[in-house]
Design a protein that fits this description.
The structure is a single chain. With 372 residues, the chain is an alpha/beta fold. Helix content is 41%, strand content 21%. The chain has three domains: 68 residues, Winged helix-like DNA-binding domain superfamily/Winged helix DNA-binding domain (Arc Repressor Mutant, subunit A); 125 residues, ATPase, nucleotide binding domain (Nucleotidyltransferase, domain 5, 2-Layer Sandwich), CATH 3.30.420; 158 residues, ATPase, nucleotide binding domain (Nucleotidyltransferase, domain 5), CATH 3.30.420. A hairpin with a 4-residue loop joins strand 8 and strand 9. Helix 9 packs across helix 10. The longest helix is centred in the last third of the chain and has 25 residues.
């Protein structure tokens, strides 16, 4: 297996490459001889390759940037919801090459395993290196300990799916997986830390501190969803008044507008009505904007991170209420505090599936052997 130093070199090239040896040595704080010692076995084993010569602006002969080998293979990410699976196939840098969405025949674990296995097999790829699966809930060591959207408890999904597909499976909480994708392949690549807020069927929160994603049992419990944001707000299904789930989830927003208009309104219809300045939809979305800005302020204040990634299928609403969000965020921050930068990820469910692929890539990096 790779040594810790060799693995650090390989990770840096995967995340930031192609990189000249000079740039790679500077990033890892290595001397040129040390870098040569570490990269030689990686190149000899075909894990890294040398690109064509290029000039990097320094004095001396042109450099040959190091890059990850094209033979690194394909990775698959699968995001499970209560009724769908969203799948992407990516390269080792989590660049999406293919995608598909399928309805779940059932939420019974064996039926979901069948659906996932069929979807992965249908890709027809003979270079699969790993599959990542993400879902909402508490995940531990490949087991879905508690996945309320699916009605699961103690489901050993990773082992069961690995037995079906014959390739390594990584199971992770969906918000943690999304944070890992941003940390390695997104805005977080060059940030020491950031918070991530997700809005959609639920409200999620993740945190990266000093380059490490925070992983605790509470990461999958959804505690932020019931954080109180407005004292006179509507109630969520659990009876909490003015919590994040009551103000920001797609179902809550649809329900409030439906009640105001005395007819069923989907979330997409709410967005269209708000764009047309319908009074009922506008009032609900304004309240959601205030709540989201308050949540951002709390996230920044309590985590001490001034960069926040916003993701999830509810991100579309952010553009409609940006002024309300900014105003509420400003009210919730001290005047001397750092400005908060919001980084929206508008790729919808593909972002969730890409997060699952990212954790599969991370797991594969830990399995690399110089004898492969």
């Amino acid at each position: 297996m790779l040594t810790e130093s060799e693995a650090a070199v390989a990770r840096a090239v995967v995340i930031h490459g192609p990189l000249s040896r000079r740039a790679l040595a500077a990033r890892l704080h290595l001397s040129p001889p040390s870098l040569t010692r570490l990269t030689r076995p990686l190149v000899d084993a075909g894990i890294l390759i040398e690109r064509d010569d290029e000039t990097d602006g320094s004095v001396g002969r042109p450099s040959r940037p190091l890059d990850v080998s094209p033979s690194a293979g394909t990775f698959v990410g699968v995001k499970l919801t209560s009724d769908h699976l969203h799948l992407v196939a990516t390269d080792i840098r989590a660049e999406v090459r293919d995608r598909t969405d399928r309805s779940l025949a059932s939420t019974e674990p064996r039926a979901v395993i069948d659906d996932v296995a069929r979807a992965v097999t249908a890709l027809g790829r003979d270079d699969l290196r790993g599959v990542g699966v993400s879902l909402g809930g508490h995940v531990w060591a490949g087991v879905a300990v508690d996945a309320p959207f699916l009605g699961w408890q103690e489901v050993p999904l990773a082992d069961a799916l690995a037995a079906r597909l014959g390739i390594p499976i990584t199971l992770e909480n969906d918000v943690v997986a999304l944070a890992e994708a941003e940390r390695w392949f997104g805005v977080g690549r060059d940030l020491p830390g950031f918070a991530i807020v997700t809005v959609g069927a639920g409200v999620g929160f993740g945190l990266v501190i000093d380059g490490r994603t925070v992983r605790t049992p509470d990461a999958g419990v959804g505690t932020v969803g019931h954080l109180p944001l407005r004292a006179d707000g509507p109630t969520c299904p659990l009876g909490h008044r003015g919590c994040a789930a009551a103000l920001l989830t797609t179902s809550a927003i649809s329900a409030q507008v439906s009640a105001a208009l005395a007819r069923d309104v989907t979330y997409d219809e709410v967005m269209n009505l708000a764009r047309d300045r319908d009074p009922a939809a506008t009032a609900v979305m304004d309240a959601a904007g205030d709540a989201l800005g308050t949540l951002f302020a709390l996230a920044a204040n309590l985590s001490l991170q001034s960069d926040i990634v916003l993701a999830g299928e509810g991100v579309e609403a952010f553009d409609l209420v940006r002024e309300r969000v900014d105003a509420a965020l400003s009210r919730g921050r001290a005047g001397s505090a750092s400005a908060v930068a919001i980084h929206p990820d508008r790729s919808g469910f593909s972002a969730w599936a890409r997060g699952a692929a990212a954790v599969a890539i991370q797991a594969a990096m830990g399995r690399i052997s110089l004898n492969d």
